[in-house]
């Protein structure tokens, strides 16, 4: 990892090699042997480069920190007032009158009969989640069983799915009808649709959120954890283990399934997102090593976007996937429903766009996914 990789030089070498090979087509057998040897050498170069990226992408920088936090939570060790604040959602969603003054008082409150059942559910869910947190390349073939069966009790895939991103490029797109024509519409992070129906549609079949969105909602008075209705299934991935509190309390008031993504699926998405980010980093910064990728992307704070994982989910449960609202332009807002213009540094959107392009044109180039998985056709609408 510490050695410097120069992909741009390799690319130039490829171009030069291709030119040389085209000239040698008319050369005798000896020339053909020379060209074949050079081509074999270059293939080895590419394989070594890709192997290095794969090993790098498989490293979870935040793994130790996450394990420590899980252990502390299972021991009911909140550690700081900040940890207590994370649990304020319990009172928000359930309208309890208990107001402990500090984290110690909150620990005592959890041990009371009123809250004990919440604590037991929290501990069980966290333990199950932590136990499954491992890499499994064939997890994509399990998504129908893990996600679709709990939602509609059917083990057949959906015929067509629209994954609706939140990019400002959706404004003036008038994709609303096209989106609603799909059998299933997946929306991200509680994005508002009222007033934007002609561009983003009005149908919502699955709400896909990251747990931080649900947690922030829990901290605000009057914020509903199910804005698309009590009967719309929610699929959520866990950003921080402590957010299982928000999951439990929102689930208590939700009529449709509220599912937490399998951590094996989360790890697969994390590796793919990091791989494309590291690959882009090396291609655009000739001479820099992979060791310099971390400081550029905030190291352990780096994370794939909700959109990437929602698309990955659709790949596993749909026969055909359409993507809307993925991309950007200089004149468009970051989110169509907010005034935010800047992008979050913890995501590498440009790298994710490269991943989406591979989904459309060359899905078998995508690493870490089992060779037995059959990719459905993907179309990106701008």
From TrEMBL:
<keyword id="KW-0333">Golgi apparatus</keyword>
<keyword id="KW-0328">Glycosyltransferase</keyword>
<keyword id="KW-0472">Membrane</keyword>
<comment type="similarity">
    <text>Belongs to the glycosyltransferase 29 family.</text>
</comment>
<dbReference type="GO" id="GO:0008373">
    <property type="term" value="F:sialyltransferase activity"/>
</dbReference>
<dbReference type="InterPro" id="IPR001675">
    <property type="entry name" value="Glyco_trans_29"/>
</dbReference>
<dbReference type="Pfam" id="PF00777">
    <property type="entry name" value="Glyco_transf_29"/>
</dbReference>
<protein>
    <submittedName>
        <fullName>Glycosyltransferase 29A</fullName>
    </submittedName>
</protein>
<dbReference type="InterPro" id="IPR038578">
    <property type="entry name" value="GT29-like_sf"/>
</dbReference>
<keyword id="KW-0735">Signal-anchor</keyword>
<keyword id="KW-0325">Glycoprotein</keyword>
<keyword id="KW-1133">Transmembrane helix</keyword>
<keyword id="KW-0812">Transmembrane</keyword>
<keyword id="KW-0808">Transferase</keyword>
<dbReference type="GO" id="GO:0000139">
    <property type="term" value="C:Golgi membrane"/>
</dbReference>
């Amino acid at each position: 990892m510490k050695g410097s990789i120069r992909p741009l030089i390799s690319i130039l070498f490829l171009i030069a090699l291709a030119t040389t090979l085209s000239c040698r087509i008319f050369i005798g057998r000896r020339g053909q042997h020379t060209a074949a040897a050079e081509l074999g050498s270059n293939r080895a170069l590419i394989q070594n480069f890709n192997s290095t990226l794969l090993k790098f992408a498989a490293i979870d920088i935040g793994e130790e920190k996450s394990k420590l936090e899980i252990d502390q939570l299972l021991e009911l060790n909140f550690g700081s007032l900040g940890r207590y604040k994370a649990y304020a959602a319990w009172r928000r969603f359930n309208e309890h009158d208990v107001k402990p003054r500090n984290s110690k008082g909150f620990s005592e409150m959890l041990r009371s009969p009123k809250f004990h059942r919440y604590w037991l559910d929290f501990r069980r869910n966290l333990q199950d989640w932590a136990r499954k947190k491992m890499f499994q390349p064939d997890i994509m073939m399990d998504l129908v069983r893990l996600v679709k069966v709990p939602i509609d009790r059917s083990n057949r895939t959906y015929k067509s799915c629209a994954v609706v991103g939140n990019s400002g490029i959706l404004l003036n797109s008038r994709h609303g009808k096209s989106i609603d024509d799909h059998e299933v519409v997946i929306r991200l992070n509680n994005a508002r649709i009222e007033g934007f129906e002609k561009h983003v549609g009005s149908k919502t079949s699955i709400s896909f959120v990251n747990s931080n969105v649900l947690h922030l909602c829990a901290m605000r008075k009057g914020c509903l954890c199910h804005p698309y209705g009590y009967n719309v299934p929610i699929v959520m991935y866990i950003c921080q283990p402590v957010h299982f509190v928000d999951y439990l309390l929102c689930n208590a008031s939700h009529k449709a399934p509220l599912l937490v993504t399998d951590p094996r699926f989360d790890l697969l998405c994390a590796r793919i997102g990091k791989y494309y980010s590291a690959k882009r980093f090396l291609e655009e910064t000739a001479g820099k090593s992979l060791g310099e990728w971390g400081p550029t992307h905030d190291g352990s704070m780096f994370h794939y976007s909700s959109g990437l994982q929602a698309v990955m989910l659709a790949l596993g449960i749909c026969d055909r996937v359409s993507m809307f609202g993925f991309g950007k332009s200089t004149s468009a807002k970051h989110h169509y429903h907010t005034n935010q213009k800047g992008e979050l540094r913890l995501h590498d959107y440009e790298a994710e766009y490269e991943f989406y392009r591979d989904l459309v044109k060359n899905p078998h180039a995508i690493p870490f996914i089992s060779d037995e998985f059959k990719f459905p056709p993907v179309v990106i609408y701008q």
